[in-house]
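User:
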Amino acid sequence: MEDKKSSFVALSHNVSNLVYHFVCPAKYRREVFSEAVDRSLKEICLGIELRYDYIRFLEIGADMDHVHFLIQSTPTHSPSEIIQKVKSITARQIFLEHPEVKKWLWGGQFWTDGYFVATVGKNTNEEVIRNYVKNQGKQDSDTSEYQQLHLRGM
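Assistant: Predicted structure:
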């Protein structure tokens, strides 16, 4: 996979930079990601990217029994919609291209039902955003008439 960097996505009504880190285990945590399966997975993902303009793979890394995907998308598509599409297409294609994998995974499923997802910040982190939000409405002087609402007793 070529080294890609996320960039802002400009649509007609918004500009965004949404990057998700997904982790998807193989069913039963079976070690199915051989070199050949890993290579096929990456090729399949490039095909998904060409077919669906809202899915852009920035990185893909397999570790024997699970895969990490770094995917950029748009705000019009939820993380669950994105990963459902990725898991569905990759499972079907891997079973077609590597029938031996189907023998290792009884029940006809390639992926576990669940997954991990987290958002990834490009130029900042949670603490910077937390402080920015917390200080909204405050003025530079201590005599400000504005009062800041603090969540959870902060």
